[in-house]
Structures are given as structure tokens and as C-alpha cells.
TrEMBL record:
Stated name of the protein: Aldehyde dehydrogenase
Domain spans labelled Aldehyde dehydrogenase: 22-473
Family named by the database record: Belongs to the aldehyde dehydrogenase family.
Organism this protein belongs to: Luteipulveratus flavus
Keywords tagged on the record: Oxidoreductase
Active site per UniProt: E254
Pfam families, A to Z: Aldedh
PANTHER family: ALDEHYDE DEHYDROGENASE-RELATED (PTHR11699)
Length: 515
């Protein structure tokens, strides 16, 4: 399988901004086209060697107690925090995003690393559970053991924050990691691996990078890792699952989204517009949980569009320090954005800011589309660019119905003073921010992931730690049972007593009655 397990998101032609030959991968700046770095391309043998080294490191790492693992990860966290500006510069050079935005994602990743290391023992360590009345003579214990070696295929849009959602939690759970960063951001991945190596005793390879394009991801999927965590497009996620299925390797898939914001008639319209602008245009719209659709109650729709237009008018994309966001990191995605905007306008939608002319060769200026038909590509497909569709609705029930009218189900946003929680629960998505945008991603204790075409499994939080561990159940007999039911010496009297106990415990369960 070649050029199929790239972490590019969403699916598009492979980028021309990366040169791949038999030996080296060149990372190029999307702003200047200059070479940022060169990295050796791993073949299947190199991937296998990395897995073998990781297995040795994993055995050592898993044998340490939670406290000693936390001490190493805390040292790494200190390195990341102290050198944040250095790493931010690598992110800027490889993605084109402003330094401040790069710093923001790094800071959030550091905070998640701290949470994972600090909570691993509580979440994964041995704990007692009730054995129940029937098995009262038993002591029941559950603990979560490291899986071994975790493979991670990361994206380019948030090359620190997103893969660290898997890497940090996998390491905290006691695993070693082999990481294939995106072919667009190999330098970021290598920087992370090198920085951890500085604090790991005896140079044990807890985190290794394997560089390349789709064929390297393919090799990693087939390498026999104990779990594979992937972030990228839905289409590529399906290919990852198919490759991993050959070895029954479990997978965690964080795929694309078409996230919606709901704005109710009692919303703080100004705050909603401000959040929509950030959710839609930050990082050039290259955010899987970014806002691509807004459904606003008709009673406040005109005010919302005015507020959003006002906030968007002052934003621009460029490569200088003062720009709101940078270029499109994936060149082929420009064509997707142009197609969506063109289709929306040709089908009767209006561009109140930007439009087809806002789509350049490398930079896409912010575009606000209104009154776009629900069956247009700008509404049904992931755009992954700095555009947003704003459509008015007659009720919030209609807003929920439209928001849920897609196969995606990653994140979402709701603005309402009284209905926030109700509307949030009604949205078919893995995460929702109420009176905010993307806030769930910054809370380490909250699980992050989607449903439907947006994938399955979770990073972050206790669920994220458990994703990279295997539950171990132990039942220990404390005293001999009154009735030994798991013996061929069981008597008819015991069977009768057992039936009597079951009837007494459960026979009078409340019956459902129709009203």
C-alpha cells in the first residue's frame, strides 16, 4: 500500500511541499518554500527495528512504578515548558502558523502531559470493586496494565497538541511509543522524541520517530504494535483499520469533522460571533473541531451576521507576524476550499465576507457564507479551511436536526443562556462546548473523540489513559463459599438453594407498565 496511510487531513492529493526519494524526506516551509529539514525515510525493516527497540524499552518502563514514571515525564514536561519558544519556531516553520498559535498548542500539550502523569496511578492502579452478594466470599480487584508498544500516526495541523494526546497518555500508562509524524511536520515529531530522550535514563528509546509518507504508516500498521492511534481523514482512517485488521491490532481513530455551532434566541450574540470567528478561522480553518456550520435562530440571525462580519473584516491571512493566521499547510486543500465556496455561491448562497476571490494560491482569506443550501458541499463535506456557513433556523429543534444531519460527529458548540445543556446533549457528537468554542480540548480530564464518521476511541482524561492499557480482573477467594457452585460435588440441595436466592434477589424486580 503506497501513499495511503498518510496522516494528511482531510483526504486530498499528496502534498507537493514534501519531496520523498529513496533516502530522505525534505520538509519545506509553506510560507517561503525553503527547506526546513531533512530526515531519513524509514522502510519496513527500519520500522521493525524501531518496534524491537521499543519492546525492550517498554519492558523496562512497565516495570517501574507510577511514581518513577511520573518523575521522568515531569522532567520532560519541564523541558517542553522551558523550550516552548524553540519548539514553537519549528512548528511555525513547518506549518506556517503564527508563533503565538504554535505556543498555545504546545502549552495545552504540556498541561495534558502533567495531568496524564499525575492521574495515571489513580485511574489505572489496582482498586477494589464489589463482588456482589452471590460472590461475597471473593475479593474483586481491577487494574490496568500497559499494552506494550503503541504506534501513533499524527497529523500536521496541530503537530504537537494532537499527537501528544496519544503519546503522553500512552507513556503515562506505561507503554513505549513509535511515532510517525506527518510528512509535512517531521521536524516537530523528531524534536519531541529528542527532547524526551534527554531525560530518559540510559537513553532508552521510549519515543521514536519513523519518517516518511503513506508506505511508512502502512508498515507501522502491520508491524505488530499493541495498539495504533491515528488522527487524520475519515477515508485514511478506514485504510488504517483495514491494515491493522490483518494482525488484529486494535485501533483508535480520530477522524474528520463538520462541527456545528447552535445559537439560540437567548444567546449572548456578541460572544457567539466572537467564538464563531475563532472557531472558523484560527489556524486557517485547519482544525478538526473547528466551526464549519452555524445554525442561528431567525430572531437573532441578522444581529449575529452583523457581529460576525464585523469581527471577520479585520482578519487577514499572511506570512508576517501581525497576520491572524498563516497559509494553507496542505497545498491540495486550497482546491477543496475553492470548490466548496464556488458551489455554495452557485447554488444561491451569499458571501458576506470573502468569497471565491478570497481563495488564493497559498493563502485563503476568511469567508462567511449565508443562506447556503443544506445539500451543498460546503455544508455536507469537511472543508478544512477558513470558511463558515451561517444558516438561519425557525427553532432550536430545527437547529439540532440540521446539526445532526451529517455522518460526522466530532465536536460542537452551543450558545444559549437557558438551553445550553439541553441542546448540547441533543447534538450527535463526542464533545460540545456550551457558551464557548473548542474549550473541551483544553480540559485534560475530559475525553476527546467522536462518533460516526469522526471515529471512535478517546484520548485525554481517564478514558484516554485506559485506551492505552489492558484491564486485568482478579477474583481472590477470601473465605470458603457457603455453596460451592463451581464443583462437580454440587448437590441438588445447593441447586435448590441457589434458585431460591436468585428469586429472592431478583424475582420482584419492578415491571415496566404502560401509562
Amino acid at each position: 500500500m503506497t501513499d495511503t496511510l498518510s496522516s494528511a487531513q482531510p483526504s486530498a492529493d499528496l502534498p507537493t511541499a514534501t519531496v520523498h526519494d529513496a533516502e530522505q524526506l525534505e520538509s519545506l516551509s509553506p510560507i517561503t518554500g525553503d527547506v526546513v529539514g531533512r530526515y531519513p525515510v524509514a522502510d519496513a525493516e527500519a520500522v521493525a527495528d524501531a518496534i524491537a527497540r521499543a519492546r525492550e524499552a517498554a519492558d523496562w518502563w512497565a516495570a517501574l512504578d507510577f511514581g518513577r514514571r511520573k518523575a521522568v515525564l515531569d522532567q520532560w514536561r519541564g523541558v517542553l515548558a522551558r523550550r516552548m519558544a524553540q519548539l514553537a519556531d519549528v512548528v511555525h516553520r513547518e506549518t506556517g502558523k503564527p508563533h503565538a498559535d504554535a505556543q498555545l498548542e504546545i502549552g495545552l500539550a504540556v498541561d495534558h502531559l502533567a495531568w496524564a502523569a499525575g492521574h495515571a496511578k489513580k485511574v489505572l492502579g489496582p482498586h477494589r470493586v464489589s463482588a456482589g452478594l452471590l460472590m461475597a466470599n471473593q475479593a474483586a480487584t481491577v487494574e490496568y496494565l500497559p499494552r506494550g508498544v503503541i504506534g501513533v500516526i499524527g497529523p500536521w495541523n496541530y503537530p504537537v497538541f494532537t499527537p501528544m494526546g496519544s503519546i503522553a497518555y500512552a507513556l503515562a500508562a506505561g507503554n513505549a511509543v513509535v511515532f510517525k509524524p506527518s510528512e509535512l511536520t517531521p521536524g516537530v515529531g523528531q524534536w519531541l522524541a529528542d527532547s524526551l530522550a534527554e531525560v530518559v535514563p540510559d537513553g532508552r528509546p521510549l519515543l521514536q520517530c519513523v519518517h516518511g509518507r503513506g508506505e511508512v504508516g502502512d508498515a507501522l500498521c502491520r508491524s505488530g504494535v499493541d495498539k495504533l492511534a491515528f488522527t487524520g481523514s475519515t477515508a485514511t482512517g478506514r485504510k488504517v483499520m483495514a491494515a491493522c485488521a490483518e494482525t488484529l491490532t486494535p485501533v483508535l481513530i480520530e477522524a474528520g469533522g463538520k462541527d456545528a455551532m447552535l445559537v439560540a434566541d437567548d444567546a449572548d450574540v456578541s460572544a457567539a460571533a466572537d467564538a464563531a470567528a475563532w472557531g472558523a478561522f484560527s489556524n486557517a480553518g485547519q482544525t478538526c473541531v473547528g466551526i464549519e456550520r452555524v445554525y442561528v435562530h431567525e430572531s437573532v440571525a441578522d444581529e449575529f451576521v452583523r457581529e460576525l462580519t464585523s469581527r471577520t473584516a479585520g482578519l487577514s491571512a499572511a506570512g508576517d507576524v501581525g497576520s491572524a493566521y498563516g497559509p494553507m499547510t496542505l497545498p491540495g486543500q486550497v482546491d477543496v476550499v475553492r470548490r466548496h465556496v464556488t458551489d455554495a455561491v452557485e447554488r444561491g448562497g451569499r458571501a458576506v465576507v470573502g468569497g471565491v476571490e478570497a481563495v488564493g494560491e497559498a493563502y485563503v482569506q476568511p469567508t462567511v457564507l449565508v443562506d447556503v443550501p443544506e445539500d451543498s458541499s460546503a455544508v455536507t463535506e469537511e472543508t478544512f479551511g477558513p470558511t463558515v456557513v451561517v444558516n438561519r433556523v425557525a427553532s432550536m429543534d430545527e437547529a439540532v436536526s440540521r446539526a445532526n444531519g451529517t455522518g460526522y460527529g466530532l465536536g460542537g458548540s452551543v450558545f444559549s443562556k437557558a438551553q445550553g445543556m439541553t441542546l448540547a446533549r441533543a447534538m450527535r457528537s463526542g464533545m460540545v462546548a456550551v457558551n464557548g468554542v473548542i474549550s473541551f480540548a483544553g480540559i485534560p480530564a475530559l475525553p476527546f473523540g467522536g462518533v460516526g464518521s469522526s471515529g471512535f476511541g478517546r484520548i485525554h482524561g481517564a478514558d484516554g489513559l485506559r485506551e492505552f492499557a489492558s484491564p486485568k480482573a482478579i477474583a481472590r477467594q477470601r473465605v470458603r463459599p457457603l455453596m460451592n457452585l463451581t464443583s462437580f460435588g454440587r448437590t441438588p440441595a445447593m441447586d435448590k438453594n441457589f434458585a431460591t436466592v436468585i428469586a429472592a434477589l431478583h424475582g420482584r424486580a419492578t415491571q415496566f407498565r404502560k401509562r
